[in-house]
């Protein structure tokens, strides 16, 4: 009987270790998601600022775009369209990342709950073993 509970305890501890590793990996992924979202949020702010600046210009103003080490003259309407498309893209990416984050946080919560239940099982098994 003692060896049965010992092997059961070892199995539960191995399962607990696996779940803890999964939770750790998930938390790292959540951290990466936050970093990427932060980067996109900064880019969104920069592009919105550029759009405001472009709106202040007159139709005949010279607009230049930096391509590598060279400034290339660009049409104001084209520059406006490019910046708006970039803002659209960044906004869509932020929405996608937000959805992914919510999904990962849900998985994280369920993993935490299963780890707590597993720890309770182990404690109960150890308490039963201590009584015997």
**What structural category do the secondary elements indicate?**
mainly alpha
How does the overall form come out from the CA principal axes? rod-shaped
CATH class: Mainly Alpha
Poorly predicted runs: none
N-to-C SSE string, H for helix and E for strand: HEEH
Q: Reading side by side through the largest sheet, how are the strands ordered?
A: 1-2
Number of individual domains: 1
Going by CATH, the architecture would be: Orthogonal Bundle
Account of the 3D structure:
A hairpin with a 2-residue loop joins strand 1 and strand 2. This protein is mostly helical and 132 residues long. 84% of the residues lie in helices and 8% in strands. Strands 1-2 form a two-stranded antiparallel sheet. It has one domain: Helix Hairpins (Orthogonal Bundle). Helix 1 runs antiparallel to helix 2. The protein contains 2 helices and 2 strands; from the N terminus they run H-E-E-H. The chain is rod-shaped. One of its GO terms (cellular component) is cytoplasm. Belongs to the prefoldin subunit beta family. InterPro entries: PFD_beta-like, Prefoldin. It comes from Aquilegia coerulea.
């Amino acid at each position: 009987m003692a060896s049965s509970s010992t092997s059961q305890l070892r199995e539960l501890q191995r399962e607990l270790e696996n779940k803890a590793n999964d939770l750790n990996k998930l938390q790292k992924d959540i951290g990466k998601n936050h970093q990427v979202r932060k980067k996109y949020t900064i880019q969104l702010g920069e592009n919105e600022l550029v759009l405001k600046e472009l709106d202040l210009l007159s139709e005949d103003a010279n607009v230049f775009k930096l391509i590598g080490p060279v400034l290339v003259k660009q049409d104001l309407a084209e520059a406006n369209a490019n910046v708006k498309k970039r803002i659209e893209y960044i906004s869509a990416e932020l929405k996608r990342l937000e959805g992914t984050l919510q999904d990962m946080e849900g998985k994280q919560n369920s993993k935490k709950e299963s780890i707590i239940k597993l720890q309770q099982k182990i404690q109960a098994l150890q308490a039963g073993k201590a009584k015997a």
